[in-house]
Amino acid sequence: MLILIFMNKFVIEVKNVFKSFKDVEAVRGIDLNIPEGQFVAVLGPNGAGKTTLVEMIEGIQKPDRGEILLFGKTWKDNETELRQLIGISLQETRFIDKLTVYETLRLFASFFDLKRDRVCEIIELTGLEEKQKAYTVNLSGGQRQRLALGLALLNEPRILLLDEPTTGLDPTARREVWAILNKLKEKPDASMILTTHYMEEAEQLCDQIIIVDQGRILKSGRLDELLDANNKNLDDLFISLTGRHLNEQTDQD
Ligand SMILES: Nc1ncnc2c1ncn2[C@@H]1O[C@H](COP(=O)(O)OP(=O)(O)OP(=O)(O)O)[C@@H](O)[C@H]1O
Ligand SMILES: [Mg+2]
Question: What is the pTM of this model?
Fold first, then answer.
């Protein structure tokens, strides 16, 4: 009985999942259990399989093998319910050029039957007040990322899945996104997985860090568990695990 109660606390369960694209084995047997309230960083170089893994958790791609459960449920039979509970932002977000920031948020809010008030809350949370009448095509990179995050947060998701939310942003814009995500941490039932190339991002935002390379988990744990005298930061650790820097391209054998 105790074991059952404990198991139900995992909001995301990934069980021995594999995914290949023709001859490329993007994900090669990944297991994950994410408890409610945990913020998790998936850290790895280009081509490590981060997007493929996250998109399978998002129900966008199907695993070839293995099982993924969100709140104990599979995507196959519970898609409508699960869509209401998660918020996602993809690695590259394309907005409708001819809608303004406000109109874009209103459109997405209508999918969830949300009122205007929620749109205003999101505009405030993401600091887009001055840009709400701007066409999305005219936003800067940082503003686009904040809008993408705002869209992901509209429905007050219990699980937030963000694929490289700050890639390409300057340090100030990156910190603005971190500030928004740090506010979410105050909600005890909000959980998050983000993928990133930035060690500092993982360190600043996440309780648990998962280092992936070539479709496998190399190591995972809290930052203090991962670092030691020989590996003083995540980059040192990555080099000692793989012989390469985090920002080097992965070549599959
Ligand atoms: N739709 C696809 N068709 C063919 N190959 C794919 C497809 N999607 C991903 N891959 C391949 O699978 C591997 C993992 O890709 P993935 O996008 O998951 O990596 P990633 O860790 O997200 O990389 P990045 O940091 O560059 O975003 C790569 O070798 C990639 O080329
Ligand atoms: Mg990716």
Answer: 0.91
